[in-house]
C-alpha cells in the first residue's frame, strides 16, 4: 500500500518546509539571474539593501506588503473553504470603484477619518459583489470558481478601462485616470511610526491602510479559528460531504466565504488609491491580486504567515526596483519569476520534499530515542 | 469599399485571429480530456512564442523557431505533469505558476539577450511562416464571388493556419477512433477503470500533457513567426484564457472547439474593425465590451443558460493508485 503522507511536526510543517520551498525557489531564480549574466549574490545583497537600507526603502517595502496582505488574506480565506479564488486581481480593481465614489464624492467635504471608514465599506462591498456571481455559479451550478474568477478578472479590466477613458476621466487631461481627490480623500502617512524606530521616511507612500491590513489579518484569524462560521468554512474545505452531513448549507458557506474573500481584495484598493496616488489610475492593482496567491501559499493560509510572506514579497518588489538601477538586465519582472517559482514549489510541488523531510525527521527521532549501544547491550541481557 | 470586400476582410482576419485560440484550445482539449486541468495554456504559448522568436532570430529559419517553441512548451508541460501527476499537486496552482514563470522569464531573457525592452528583433520574411498560395488561385480568380473568396479567404495563409484547421478532424479521429483516444477519454472520466485494465494512468496522462505542450508551442510559434514578426512582451494577452473559455464553450469536443474559436476570433476581428465606426441604431459599441464578450458568453454558458458544460469527471483530481 502506498503510504498516505504522515503528519509532520508543526514546526516543520509551518516553518521548515516553507523555508525549504522558498530556498529552492530562490535557487532556481538565481539560475535565471546567472543566465542573464549577473551575480545572484550581488543581486540579493542589492535587493536587501534596497528594501531595508533606508527609511524610504522600509516605507516602500511595507507599502507593497500592505497590498499583498489584503490579497493574500483574500486567497487564504477562500482556500480554507476549498475554493481557489484567482479573481483577487479583478475584485481589487473593481473595488477601486468603491474608493473612487467615496474619494471623488466626499473627498472635498469630509475629513479623512470619516471618509476612510466609508471607503472601507464601499471598496469591500464592491469587491464582495464582484465575487458574488462566481460564488453563486459555483454553489448553484457547480461551475468551477477558478474559471469564472479568471473570466471576471478580464471583465473587470474591461469595465475599468471603459470607465477610466470615459466617465471617470478628469476633464482637461489625456491620461486615463480620475482627478486627484480632495484632502478628505487622502490617507495620512505613517512616517511617525517608522520615526519611532529611528527611521526617516521622506517620500514613501506607506499609509494608515497598513494598520488596517494588520487589523484585517487579526480579524481573519478570529473568523477562521474562533467563530462558528470559520469552523463551518474549514469543515467545508476539509470535507464537503461531512459538512453537508452536519447540516451546513453548502450554498450559504460558499457564497459568504467568497464574498468575504472578495471584500478583502476590494479593500486592497484603498492603499494605492487613497493612500498613495489619491486618484484612480489604469491598472493600479499591478498584479498584486496574483501575488496574493503566492503569499497565501507561502503563508500556509495563516494570517501570521501571510503577513510575513507579504513583507517578503514587499521586499522583493521594492528591492527589485532598486536592483534595476544597478543591473539593467534585471527588471521588476524578475519578481514575477520568483512569484511563479514560489507558487510552484510552495503550492503545486508542496509534497515533493515532504516524504524526504519526514523520513529524515523520523530517523533523527529514532536515533535520539535509542539508548547508547553500551546501555542497549546491557539492557538486552 | 463595398460590403462584400468588408465582409471578406473581417472573415479573413477572423481566421487569422482564431488560429492561436484553436491551437491552444485543442492543446487544452488533450490535457483536460485526460483529467489534467491546464490553466497554463497561456504561459506555454507565451514561452513558445518567445522561443520561436529567439530561435528564428539566431538561426534565420522559421522551422528552427517552431522546433524551439515546441520543445520549450513541452518542457513546461512536463513541469506541469511532474507537479500534478507525479507529485499529485494542485493542477490549478501548478498552471498558475507556469503562467507567471513564463511571463517573467520571457521578458527578463528577452531584455538580456536582445536589449529591446523584452521584445525579440524584428524577423525578416525569410525567417517567418509566409502566406502560401493554394493551387488554382490564378485560374479561379476570374470567377466573381467564388474567386475572391478562394483567393482572399481560403488561400493566402501561412502553413500553420492550414495545420491548425487540419488538426481539428485529426483530433476528432484520435479521440474517437483510436485506442489511444479511447484510453485518453477514459482516464479523464474514470482513471481507476483504466488502471484496472492494466494501463498506466501516469504514462497516459504524461502523453496527454506532452500533446498539450506540443500544440501550445505551435500556437506560440504562430504568434511570433507567422502572425507577427518577432516576439513582443506579453504577446499572448489572455489568449490562453480565451482558449480555455472556448474549450468550455465547446464542451470539450474538437469540432465544437473550432466553431467556438472561430466565434471568439470573429468577435475580436469585429472589435478591431468597428473601432470608430458607429453601428446603425445602436451607436458606437465600446471596444471594451467586444473584448470582454468571449468571457461574458462563457459566464452565461456556465450559468446554464445555453446548455450545461460538464467537464471530464476526473478532471483536476490526482490519481492515487491504491490506498
Automatic annotation (TrEMBL), chain A:
| Membrane topology category | Multi-pass membrane protein
Gene Ontology cellular-component terms for this entry are:
plasma membrane
Looking at the record's lineage, which domain of life comes first? Bacteria
Main location, first listed in the record: membrane
As for subcellular location, the record says: Cell membrane
The question of whether Iron is a record keyword is answered with: no
TM annotation in the entry: 12-37, 57-80, 92-110, 116-133, 145-168, 180-199, 206-225, 245-270, 282-299, 305-325, 334-353
Q: In Gene Ontology terms, what is one molecular function of this protein? A: transmembrane transporter activity
Per its UniProt record, what Pfam families does this chain match? BPD_transp_2 (PF02653)
Q: Which UniProt keywords apply?
A: Cell membrane, Membrane, Sugar transport, Transmembrane, Transmembrane helix, Transport
Q: Which PANTHER family match?
A: ABC TRANSPORTER, PERMEASE PROTEIN, GUANOSINE ABC TRANSPORTER PERMEASE PROTEIN NUPP
Quote the protein name from its UniProt record: Simple sugar transport system permease protein
TrEMBL record, chain B:
Keywords in alphabetical order: Cell membrane, Membrane, Sugar transport, Transmembrane, Transmembrane helix, Transport
- Give yes or no: UniProt keyword Transmembrane helix: yes
- Give the bilayer topology: Multi-pass membrane protein
Record InterPro entries: ABC_transp_permease
Q: Where is this protein localized, as stated in its record?
A: Cell membrane
Quick one: a GO cellular component term?
A: plasma membrane
A Gene Ontology molecular-function term? transmembrane transporter activity
- Transmembrane region(s): 64-85, 92-114, 159-176, 255-272, 292-311
Superkingdom of this entry's organism?
A: Bacteria
**Matching PANTHER family, A to Z?**
GUANOSINE ABC TRANSPORTER PERMEASE PROTEIN NUPQ, SUGAR ABC TRANSPORTER INTEGRAL MEMBRANE PROTEIN-RELATED
Q: What is this protein called?
A: Simple sugar transport system permease protein
Native source species: Phyllobacterium myrsinacearum
